[in-house]
Amino acid sequence: MNIQTILVVCVGNICRSPMAEFFIKQQYPNLSIESAGISALIGHAADDKAITCMLNDYNIDMHSHVARQLDAKLLKKADLVLVMSLNQQKHIEQTWPFAKGKIFRLGHWQNKNVPDPYQHDQEFFNQTCKNIRSYVLDWQSHL
To answer: Which residues are catalytic?
Structure first.
């Protein structure tokens, strides 16, 4: 499969999916990378704690991020959809059956979900950020 467009999905589109989106953009500048939320906090910026860990630990600025809602158009455009959990994968496949087969967990290669850091402390965000980076790097040999 020739992957040109990747969509990263979480719940609110302010923590996990933006972090993964920006890591993937850094890793693959020639690909089209977007993110969205199943229950997005539409129009919100990335969570301050997510911005802090990305900037402090990886020198990646996410201030430009604006949360948006997942929809069929985004799913159709994507060659690969990366989600944070098996539950999210099942939900999307049930809601939009046409997307089945191109949806995988970000942590697929380590058989891991990415727990939601929303409303947790900075340390939880830092660990989530570190895990997401590790999972993104696992995709290298598959993209």
So the answer is: 10, 16, 116
